[in-house]
Amino acid sequence: MANFYYAVCPFGLETLLADELQRVGAERLEPGKGGVGFTGGHETAMAACLHSRLASRILMRVAEAEYWDSRDIYDLARRTPWEKWFGPDHTIRVGASANRCPLESIDFAVLRIKDAVCDRFRDLAGRRPDVARHQPDVRIEAYLTYDRVSFYLDLAGESLFKRGWRLTHGEAPLKENLAAGLLMLSGWTPEKTLVDPFCGSGTIAIEAAHMAMNAAPGLNRRFAFEKLEGFGGEAWQELLEDARARVNRHAAMTIRASDISSLVVGKARENAARAGLTPLLEDGRLSFEPCDARAVTAPEGTPGVLIANPPYGEQSNPKSASINAMMKDVASNLKANFAGWSAWLLTSDRTLPGQMRLKESRKIVLFNGPLECRFFRFDMVAGSNRRTRAKDTQEAN
Ligand SMILES: C[S@@+](CC[C@H](N)C(=O)[O-])C[C@H]1O[C@@H](n2cnc3c(N)ncnc32)[C@H](O)[C@@H]1O
To answer: What is the pLDDT of residues 358-397, one digit of tens each?
Structure first.
């Protein structure tokens, strides 16, 4: 049976996410702001959880209606057949997000939904589910607009960008799904050499290595749907087996990541090892080395792609005053050593091209959490960079 699902993702990656979802069999794709609606069976939804590099969550809609006040919301939650998916022995947590919702208190609506679910189970089974703030078995998400309310079950549990390898992190790590988005937007493919000279915890390099190996991002983690009726089972085991069989441990790649801090580089290596990439570190397909970005050199061979998020804003180290000067020197190094390369930099600082005395050939608006960023592309030519800027459909000032 086809259900309606909503896949949440970082703003700016919706079109790419729709492509990903289509590849796992999703239908009637509706890219929106910060997510994509789609239809499909449970198998499609499980495949989306397992294979999507860009989604943060996959939500399954279980009820929807017009409402006037919180009594209508209670009634809808009371009528919803929750017992189809979980029982009174599961722990639950209810959350809500709203867009132009006229209710005075969203928190009160959340409370009423929780009451309704518990009252329904008390009537049916004489017992009610407990509420768990942390790691509930079942997460119920309500979405309230001006006059409609929808209930969703969160199939992911922990956000999907958590791939199961990150324990330690460097300064301001990128979320894994944003790192995947940067790789996809840049047009990087595994046959191209990849360099990240500001690698921090190694997110971009590790994500790229998994992409090159065709390793599904969800292979090393669990999902909330595993505790729901109608999910899991043979279909899930087949999806897992198929994904495991597709991993190519011998995939060719050249990925060079570095950071000025040797401590951070050590942590990135640990992350890579936990991500199952030790063989790649050993045979040199993937490397993490301490190096100042002002002194990084390009690996030999055909020019490749450089992708990084250099330090910016208050979170940065060294502090912002010195970043301008540093980025000017980084630009000199890129001009001297990376001729022919595409260099892509994610930053919240719109003045970065000016600081680097470079003209961007593309500029894409993205959000790193709540921080509005630009993903700048610079086409590196030796000496000065005089290319005119290409027209960019996703450009904004
Ligand atoms: C925003 S963080 C990068 C985060 C990384 N993408 C991740 O996901 O973990 C910026 C990194 O730049 C490093 N850094 C600062 N100045 C540098 C320089 N001159 N050369 C190389 N790395 C530098 C910092 O140590 C920090 O790890």
So the answer is: 999 999 999 998 999 999 999 998 655 444 344 443 444 4
Q: Are 26 and 38 in contact (CB under 8 A)?
A: yes
Amino acid at position 38, single letter: F
Task: Give the confidence band of 60 by pLDDT, cuts at 50, 70, 90.
Answer: very high
Residue having the nearest C-alpha atom to atom 1 of ligand 1:
311
Could you report the per-residue pLDDT of 324-356, keeping only the tens digit for each?
999 999 999 999 999 999 999 999 999 999 999
Name the DSSP class of 224: G
What is the distance between the alpha carbons of residues 117 and 129, in angstroms, rounded to a whole number? 8
Q: Ligand 1 in contact with 311 (CB < 6 A)? A: yes
What six digits make up the tokens of 100?
């132009």
Tell which atom from ligand 1 comes closest to the C-alpha of 203: 8
271 lines ligand 1 (CB under 6 A): no
For a mutational test of ligand 1's pocket, the pick from 162, 165, 171, 371, i.e. the residue with the most ligand atoms closer than 8 A to its C-beta, is: 171
Tens digit of pLDDT for each residue in 220-259?
999 999 999 999 899 999 999 999 999 999 999 999 999 9
Ramachandran area for residue 262 (φ above 0: left; ψ -120 to 50: alpha; else beta)? alpha
Is there a single domain that holds both residue 134 and residue 190? no
Task: Determine if residue 134 is left, alpha or beta; phi over 0 gives left, psi from -120 to 50 gives alpha, anything else beta.
Answer: beta
Instruction: Determine the atom of ligand 1 nearest the C-alpha atom of 179.
Output: 8
Q: Indicate the number of domains in the chain.
A: 2
* Contact assessment for residue 268 and residue 165, using Cβ atoms and an 8 Å cutoff: no
Domain membership of residue 392 (yes or no) is no
Query: What is the bridge-based pairing of β-strands 286-290 and 362-368?
Result: unpaired
| Token pair listed for 27 | 């239908």
186 and 120: one domain?
no
**Distance from the CA of 257 to the center of ligand 1, in angstroms?**
10
- Pairing type for strands 194-196 and 255-259 reads parallel
Confirm whether 161 is domain-assigned. Answer: no
The reply to whether 40 and 122 lie within a common domain is yes
Structural domain boundaries, residue 68:
3-154
In a domain? residue 165: no
**CB of 218 sitting under 6 A from ligand 1:** no
Q: Which whole number is the average pLDDT over 261-265?
A: 96
